[in-house]
Structures are given as C-alpha cells and as structure tokens.
C-alpha cells in the first residue's frame, strides 16, 4: 500500500462533536471588562512570582494572554519553542496556555518541572484523530517504515514514533530521511503530509487527520479575495488544503508567517491560519493590514472558523484560578516519557546541526 490509508477508528463526527463542545464552552465565557482584565492580570503576575512560575503561551491564544506572557517575563511562540523556552528558564513551574499536547511536550522535555494548564480539556483535532492503539497497529503493520509524527500528537503517539517534527522543519527532516533511503509513515495531518510529500518526493503513508481550523479555508473564495485585494500577499499554513496552499505567496510555519509579514514589502496580507496569530503579526508589522482568509463559515466543521475552539478555552480567569488552586497539573507515565523524549531529542539535535 502506498500513499494513503483508511480513516482511523475515530471518525470525523467525533471530532466535530468535540470541536462543537469546545466552541460552546469557549463562547459561554462572559466577556471581561477592562477593570476586571487589569485585576486578573495583576493577580496572575502576583501568583507567577509567588509560585516561581513562568507563563508560556502559544500564538493562537487570546491576545490578552500573549500580552501578559510578554509583560511578565514569559514567552509566546510555537509549541516546540514554548517547550524549549520552558527548559531553559529557571522557573520550577511552567503555566502553559495552549492545548494539551503542548503541556505534554513541555513535561516530556522538563520532567523535573511542574507543568500546569488553564484547562486540561483543551485538545486538538489532530491529536483526537490519532488514537495511539490504532496508530500503533498501523505502524506495526509497516515495520520497514520510519515513523514521523507532528508535534500535535499525544505523548503516547510520540512514544511510538522515531521522529517528531514541527511544520517549520518537517520538509528538512523528511528530505534528510529520503536521502538515507527511508520510507515514511506520516501522522496525523493529511494536508501537511501531502505538502511534504510533494516537496520531498518521499514515499509516504499518510494518516488521515486534519485540523478543524485550517481544513475550513476555502480556495474558491480565497481566489475571489485575491482579485478584490490584488496588492495583498497570501500567507498560508500548510495544514490548509492543497488548493489553498496553491494560492499562497508564502507557505510556512506560524513563526515563518510572522517573519514573512514583517519582511515582505506588501502592506496588506490575507492570512490562512488561526487568527490568534494577528497579535504577533501586528506587533511585528504595526502599519500593515491583516485579513482572515475565507473559511467554511456557519455550518462548517470548525465552530469558530479561523479560531481554534480549544485554544479559545484559555482565558485570564482560568489562568488566575489554576495558579491559585494548584490544579490541572500534567502528569505523564514515566515509561511513556522515557520513550517520547527520543523523537523530540532527535529533532532538537537535527535542528541544532542545521
Ligand atoms: S488550530 Fe488546529 S492544529 Fe492547532 S490546536 Fe487547534 S485544532 Fe489543533
């Protein structure tokens, strides 16, 4: 069998329901007044200092949280860099604002530290769509393939992998493996996998997962938007469908897209990734205009298109609460941790050599 596999046991319906439920939770949080916002921020800063903790946030969480991370000596980045920052920082506790696999990756890299998260139910459709039992069985059925997984997977799936990669380095790693004559199992994002396959020419078996946010970007509508804004550059994350990627001026990781926004001469950009990234894009390029790429909208898989419903479960209230109550700590079975560190370390070593 080459190229594609059947959908794993967890079906699209399960993911749709989980995303809808997360979106309902996120939308049911009452908005925060300016006064409450500043009180919450102060409470969080006091707690961070009292608990020897640092706030590490993903690009896709609310702008207030990203701002607070920066104001309080924390960090805003992609998942691997968040874990790397946590590893280098002296704090004994990392407060991770993002989704669960990010807290797990931080714990795998920092087993001696306490990792807490605002809401342990904040998941990721890619992670949900790649249950370890089905994935392991698939890998067992193809023993001559090298197993490469994306960062957006559980600790248990990482423990079954040979390599973990992020979108910024995936093509380099796969090209390196192709040069060594290796055949690849790629999981879980099918769009990113297809993109890598096309660029590297690798023999890849693709797991059929997808991101509820990126999967909803629409090529036809994007083509129309390009006509409407002919001066705009189109920035696309490769978790988006191939037809959307084909319309891009730049295809890159979150960090790469922010860099492109800052460095390109265009004054207007159409952006196909989670709109949480606009905080950092506006910071990097304050005088430029950023427009969301068109998505499926109402009735689509993604209940809050262009914004991840699980990322939206992070808010200033539950950040303050988790610090005050010492709840929501991430624990990982030591046997899984010992295996999961290997594919991550392989990536870190590869990236350091580059
Ligand atoms: S934006 Fe997509 S890939 Fe990122 S955490 Fe949400 S569901 Fe997962």
Keywords, separated by commas or semicolons:
354 residues; alpha/beta; 5-stranded parallel beta sheet; 4-stranded parallel beta sheet; 16 helices; 13 strands; 46% helix; globular; binds iron/sulfur cluster
Structure write-up:
The protein is α/β, with parallel strands linked by helices. 46% of the residues lie in helices and 14% in strands. The strands form three sheets. Strands 1-9-8-6-7 form a five-stranded parallel β-sheet. It has a four-stranded parallel β-sheet with strand order 3-2-4-5, sandwiched between helices. A four-stranded parallel β-sheet has the order 11-10-12-13, with helices on one face. Helix 2 packs parallel to helix 15 and helix 4 (79-88) packs parallel to helix 5. It is globular and about 55 Å long. Bound molecules: iron/sulfur cluster. The site of iron/sulfur cluster (SF4) has 13 residues, from helix 6. Iron/sulfur cluster (SF4) binds next to helix 6.
Helices and strands in order, then pairings?
Layout: E1 3-4, H1 12-28, H2 34-50, E2 53-58, H3 63-71, E3 75-77, H4 79-88, E4 93-97, H5 100-109, E5 114-116, H6 125-128, H7 132-141, E6 145-150, H8 155-159, E7 163-165, H9 170-179, E8 183-187, H10 190-200, E9 204-206, H11 219-228, E10 233-236, H12 242-245, E11 250-251, H13 254-263, E12 268-272, H14 278-284, E13 289-292, H15 316-325, H16 334-353
Parallel strand pairs: 1-9, 2-3, 2-4, 4-5, 6-7, 6-8, 8-9, 10-11, 10-12, 12-13
Helix pairs in contact: 2-15, 4-5, 9-10
The protein binds iron/sulfur cluster.
């Amino acid at each position: 069998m080459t190229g594609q596999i059947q959908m794993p046991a967890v079906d699209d319906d399960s993911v749709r329901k989980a995303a809808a439920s997360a979106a309902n939770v996120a939308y049911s949080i009452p908005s925060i007044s300016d006064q409450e916002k500043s009180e919450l921020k102060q409470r969080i800063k006091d707690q961070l200092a009292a608990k020897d903790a640092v706030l590490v946030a993903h690009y896709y969480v609310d702008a207030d949280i990203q701002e607070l991370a920066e104001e309080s000596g924390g960090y805003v980045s992609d998942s691997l860099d968040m874990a790397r920052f946590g590893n280098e920082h002296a704090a004994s506790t990392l407060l991770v604002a993002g989704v669960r696999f990010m807290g797990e990756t931080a714990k795998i890299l920092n087993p001696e530290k306490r990792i807490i998260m605002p809401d342990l139910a904040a998941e990721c459709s890619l992670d949900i769509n790649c249950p370890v039992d089905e994935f392991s069985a698939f890998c067992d059925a193809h023993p001559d393939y090298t197993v490469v997984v994306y960062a957006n997977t559980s600790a248990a799936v990482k423990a079954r992998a040979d390599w973990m990669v992020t979108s910024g380095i995936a093509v380099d790693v796969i090209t390196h493996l192709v040069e060594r004559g290796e055949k690849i199992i790629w999981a879980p994002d099918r769009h990113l996998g297809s993109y890598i396959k096309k660029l590297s020419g690798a023999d890849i078996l693709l797991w059929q997962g997808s991101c509820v946010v990126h999967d909803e970007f629409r090529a036809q509508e994007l083509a129309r938007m390009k006509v409407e804004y002919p001066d705009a550059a189109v920035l696309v994350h490769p978790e988006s469908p191939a037809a959307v990627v084909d319309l891009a001026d730049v295809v890159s990781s979150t960090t790469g897209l922010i860099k492109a926004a800052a460095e390109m001469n265009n004054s207007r950009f159409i952006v196909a990734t989670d709109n949480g990234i606009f905080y950092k894009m506006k910071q990097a390029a304050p005088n430029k205009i950023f427009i969301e790429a068109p998505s499926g909208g109402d009735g689509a898989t993604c209940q809050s298109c262009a914004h991840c419903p699980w990322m939206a479960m992070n808010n200033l209230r539950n950040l303050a609460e988790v610090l005050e109550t010492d709840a929501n700590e991430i624990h990982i079975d030591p046997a899984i941790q010992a295996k999961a560190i290997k594919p991550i370390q392989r990536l870190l070593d590869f990236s350091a050599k580059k």
